[in-house]
Amino acid sequence: MEADKPKPRVATFTDWMRARLKGVVDPLAEFFIRLGLTPNMMTLLGLGLNAAGAVLVAGGAMTAGGLLILIGGPFDGLDGAMARRLGQPTKFGAFVDSVTDRWSEMLIFMGLLYHYVSSAHPQALLYAVLVFLATMGSVMVSYTKARAETLGFDCNVGVLTRMERYLVMAPALVLNLPWLALWVVAILANVTALQRVWHVRQQARR
Q1: How many CA atoms lie within 13 A of 89 on its CB side?
Q2: pLDDT at residue 32, as a whole number
Q3: Cβ-based burial of 65 (10 A; exposed 0-12, middle 13-18, buried ≥19)
Q4: Of 108, 116, 131, 191, which alpha carbon lies 20 to 30 A from 176's?
Q5: Are 68 and 168 in contact (CB under 8 A)?
Q6: What does the alpha-carbon distance between residue 182 and residue 52 come to, in Å, rounded to a whole number?
Q7: pLDDT digits 0-9 by tens, 189-199
Q8: Per the CATH hierarchy, to which homologous superfamily does domain 13-205 belong?
């Protein structure tokens, strides 16, 4: 009996965005390379912008913080594009990129948590719980994929991956609607983690 052929990798929204923005990202990557910047510098610049944005969010300056986070987001794609153009993509570079992505996201949630627990907002407790749920969901989305792939499973599925969370959170902060982003991420990030668990279960059963 012929063995089952492995299914092709499922394309995500992130993959779709990278393909559509390649004509913009590659010239920008070339521009920053000519300025003398390295992929690691871009990674750290992105982390720094997100950290600064998180500090502003913690102080209640949602729009200003959101703008910094919005600017810092594209650095996530530029560092990888620069590494590829320089012929320097490494496993360690990919590891550092993933780790700094997690730090950036957690710093933003920490800024929101500090803002709500230190404010007199009548729904501060509810929003603090939402921050926790959003953080939990975001961590579990990343963990389920990382753990599944170490076991040899494909886990490239879900409605709210890193790119989607960024596209929800940054504009919502700019518009001073953090509560809206928290509701969306708190619910859909955890749904995404469950989707990945189910996806891996289906593969394991096959």
Answers
A1: 9
A2: 82
A3: buried
A4: 191
A5: no
A6: 20
A7: 999 999 999 99
A8: CDP-alcohol phosphotransferase transmembrane (TM) domain (1.20.120.1760)
